[in-house]
Specification:
Radius of gyration: 23 Å
Structural class: mainly alpha
Number of helices: 20
Protein name: RNA polymerase sigma-70 factor, ECF subfamily
Largest sheet: none
Shape: globular
Low-confidence stretches: 79-109
Organism: Microlunatus flavus
GO biological process, one term: DNA-templated transcription initiation
Order of helices and strands: HHHHHHHHHHHHHHHHHHHH
Strand content: under 5%
Helix content: 55-70%
GO molecular function: DNA-binding transcription factor activity
Length: about 400
């Protein structure tokens, strides 16, 4: 990969959501913001190889995208749309012919929280709110989002397009809602930030933690926001070994000595700030993560505590992912067949055939239950459904091991 391509890829990975939020905030048109930014990336891949990568690639992209927006706004067909804010009012203007003078992204406000709440507006179909945030604000492509929600990619793409049109047509304001309407929109926002932390490792997972903590601090007294901040911080602690090892390892195969003790302590502090009232989904998930992280202190996992916490979580939020994870905990305590019974109880759930964690967990439990042929088939299905190459490599190793032990193809 050339230096210009690498710079563009890094900007897309680390700054896409922030750039889209800045562009959309000035027009109220999310689809236009995405199109303008896409054209800016095309211009970068055309311009940078000859002229060099600018000192501030993100600022260069923002300036070019702003100009593309102006071109559309000035056309007769859309002249009646909301006026564009002057870029100079935010951080000073810069011409695209001088990339070294491009807008300093760090000097501009982070509008992603506002855009997250826009996507959670009651005018947006409830089922598409969190997927829309994952794509538009956090930078995941429609296929990746579709996989996470066990929906066909074409179906998800259509839903996202309709939602973006609704934002523009309804002229939804780009603001954090007032307290009286905040609670109704908070849960899908939390779910989107959580989805970012779950779906990604590396830079985007760090961005998810930043957004979660920023959101909790902004809202001040929302227990679930602090629960989410604790949850993603515990998750970050387990992925912060700093060894440079990019291989995927399930939680029970990780060495607790490599976890970040500072982040673990911070996660506990956030969980305490969530309070002691009736816990919600993210507080319970954070408590589950805290039990896992406690292995770094005790050297063991308290599976009994996890079973109790999952029972409480399923009473509050019986998501497909939580039910699969609970089946895994049950298998630890009562044997793989007990866990398989819980997985089999999900067979009629919509989208299960595309839900990768169900297949991966089922494969592991089938192997433990002495059903290798079925385990191989389940592992093969889990491999095809995984969008992370490190996860696929891990599953292939499991598949080869079972195939080798049983003389089965794998």
């Amino acid at each position: 990969m050339s230096a210009p391509e690498a710079a563009a890829e890094r900007a897309a990975r680390e700054s896409y959501g922030r750039l889209v939020a800045l562009l959309a905030a000035s027009t109220g048109d999310l689809a236009l913001a995405e199109d303008a930014l896409s054209e800016a990336f095309v211009a970068a891949l055309t311009t940078w190889p000859a002229g060099g990568v600018p000192h501030n690639p993100e600022g260069w992209l923002l300036t070019v995208a702003r100009n593309r927006q102006r071109d559309v706004w000035r056309s007769a067909a859309v002249r009646r749309r909301a006026w564009l804010d002057d870029v100079a009012g935010e951080a000073g203007e810069a011409g695209v012919d001088d990339p070294l003078r491009a807008l300093a992204l760090d000097a501009l406000p982070d509008r992603r929280l506002e855009l997250l709440f826009v996507c959670a507006h009651p005018a947006i179909e409830e089922a598409v709110r969190t997927p829309l945030m994952l794509q538009a604000v956090l930078g995941f492509d429609a296929a990746h989002v579709a996989s996470a929600f066990a929906v066909a990619p074409a179906t998800m793409a259509q839903r996202l397009v309709r939602a973006k049109r609704k934002i523009a047509a309804a002229r939804i304001p780009f603001v954090v809602p007032p307290p009286e309407t905040l609670r109704d929109r908070l849960l899908p926002v939390l779910e989107a930030v959580y989805g970012c932390a779950v779906l990604e490792r590396g830079a985007m997972a760090g961005e998810a933690r930043h957004l979660a903590v920023t959101l909790a601090e902004l809202l001040g007294d929302q227990p679930e926001a602090w629960g989410l901040a604790a949850l993603v911080t515990f998750t970050a602690a387990r992925g912060a070994s700093g060894s440079g090892d990019t291989a995927y390892r399930p939680l029970d195969e990780q060495d607790p000595a490599t976890w970040d003790a500072r982040l673990v302590a911070r996660g506990h502090a956030y969980l305490q700030r969530a309070g002691t009232g009736v816990p919600g989904r993210f507080q319970l998930e954070a408590a589950i993560a805290a039990v896992h992280c406690d292995r770094s202190r005790t050297g063991r996992t308290d599976w009994g505590a996890l079973e109790v916490l999952y029972r409480a979580l399923l009473a509050v939020a019986p998501t497909l992912g939580a039910r699969v994870a609970a089946a895994s905990v049950t298998a630890r305590l009562h044997g793989p067949r007990a866990g398989l019974d819980l997985l089999d109880a999900l067979l009629e759930e919509p989208g299960l055939e595309r839900f990768q964690p169900w297949w991966a967990t089922r494969a592991h439990l089938l192997a433990g239950a002495g059903r290798p042929s079925e385990a191989v088939a389940a592992y093969e299905r889990a491999v095809t459904l995984s969008g992370d190459e490190a996860v696929r490599a891990h599953l292939r190793r499991k598949l080869r091991r079972i195939g080798g032990e049983q003389g089965l193809p794998g």
